[in-house]
Design brief:
With 244 residues, the chain is of the alpha+beta class. It is built from six helices and nine strands.
């Protein structure tokens, strides 16, 4: 199977808090002073972000998305289906913008994801991620995550992931946060494992990049009592299948 969703730029930064897309900034969201002489805040994508978001995705990720993807993304909609997407951008704002006659936010990191019904997943993935599909009806899928080079090691990627975690934690019918990462991206793998994600399985030939096929790992972190692929029945089946 080939796919061009869920790709992740090299990350090695750390931590903060979160909010759901569409909500106004709350007490957990602050402007964070930086050594670059400005501040950073978090918000959803705006229509005016369209070109900047596309440029960053083209720079960060080895797979390509059509223009229509970005047209819908800045409205937090999935292309073709119109399904709701979660977006969050870390934007940098200069303190001295008045002197430079600029009043503009620059996206320096962003994440895109979606809440998915478990019933829509393929059976193999659903059985791995959710131990009880009657109790856990949804999972959260991280599609893309990236940070500009100058702001790596600034805890932005972790902050963005933790915003997704907050959404999952506040939905007792959402059992997992999951993603795919190309097997070659060791920095991203280390990043997610440090955040408590488990490597669930390897999927061969998941990505097609420049005509070549690449495998990926399925990573997941479980919530609200869900044990996912650590469910006792799944582990027993795995052990028995290896014996036979």
């Amino acid at each position: 199977m080939t796919n061009n969703a869920s790709v992740h730029v090299d990350e090695s930064d750390d931590v903060e808090e979160g909010r759901e897309s569409g909500e106004s900034n709350n007490s957990d969201d602050h402007n964070h002073l930086t050594s670059h002489g400005g501040f950073i805040r978090f918000r959803s994508f705006h229509e005016g972000d369209r070109d900047q978001v596309q440029e960053l995705h083209n720079e960060w990720f080895p797979v390509s998305y059509k223009d229509e993807f970005y047209d819908e993304l800045v409205h937090e909609r999935m292309v073709n289906t119109g399904e709701k997407l979660f977006t969050c951008a870390a934007v940098y704002h200069q303190d001295d913008c008045a002197e430079s006659e600029q009043d503009e936010d620059y996206i320096i990191a962003c994440i895109v994801g979606s809440l998915l019904d478990v019933a829509r997943l393929d059976k193999d993935t659903a059985s791995l991620l959710v131990s009880d599909p009657f109790q856990y009806k949804r999972v959260f899928y991280i599609m893309t995550l990236g940070t500009v080079t100058e702001f790596r090691h600034a805890r932005l990627a972790t902050s963005l992931v933790e915003r997704c975690i907050r959404i999952v934690e506040n939905d007792d019918q959402c059992g997992a946060l999951y993603l795919h990462v190309i097997t070659l991206n060791t920095a991203a793998i280390t990043f997610y494992e440090r955040l408590g994600f488990y490597r669930v399985k390897e999927i061969e030939n998941y990505y097609r990049i420049d005509g070549k096929l690449y495998s990926c790992y399925l990573y997941a972190r479980y919530f609200n009592g869900n044990r996912g692929h650590w469910d006792v029945y799944y582990v027993m089946r795995k052990m028995l299948s290896s014996v036979w």
